[in-house]
Amino acid sequence: MALISFEHKGNFKTTEKFLMNLRHMKFERILERYGQKGVDALAAATPVRTGKTAASWSYEVSREGSTYIISWKNSNLEKGVPIAVLIQTGHGTKNGGYVRGIDYINPAMKPVFDAIANDAWKEMTK
Predict the structure, then answer these.
(1) Which domain range does residue 118 map to?
(2) Does residue 110 sit in helix, strand or coil?
(3) Structure confidence at residue 122 (pLDDT)
(4) Residue 42's closest CA among 79, 11, 21, 73?
């Protein structure tokens, strides 16, 4: 029978300090900072016919337990259908045709997501 053993010298002060700092972080502050940046990026990237979809972006920061959520929303609906989604994914037409989607959301938001991750990491490792 093989035995596994290990020895430890020192303490976990650095790890404990890191974990305690995480408990007191204000992730909402970071997410709020990037909410409008995301709105601006989405508005700039949204294909424009009338400009209504581009002007209809908003954001919301919320918390569910220990989970922080930032949501970008578009309020431009036509007969209950979100136009931003139709532009992104494509859609059928009433004449039986198809309008191909344009992937504008992912490229617009990638720099915002990267910046959020960067700032959150910097905040955690202060």
Answers:
(1) 26-124
(2) helix
(3) 81
(4) 73
> What is the value of pTM for the model shown?
0.74
Q: What are the φ/ψ torsions at residue 90 (nearest 5 degrees)?
A: 90, 170
SS (H, E, C) 15-75: HHHHHHHHHHCCHHHHHHHHHHHHHHHHHHHCCCCCCCCHHHEEEEEEEECCEEEEEEEEC
pLDDT digits (tens, 9 = 90+) for 90-104: 999 999 999 999 999
List Cα–Cα distances, 33 to 21, 69, 121, in angstroms: 20, 13, 15
Per-residue pLDDT band at 74 (split at 50, 70, 90): very high
Whether 109 is in a domain gets the answer yes
Supply 68's token pair: 């922080």
Output the six-digit token pair for 14. 């650095």
| Confidence at residue 21, expressed as pLDDT on a 0 to 100 scale | 67
Looking at the domain assignment, is residue 85 inside a domain? yes
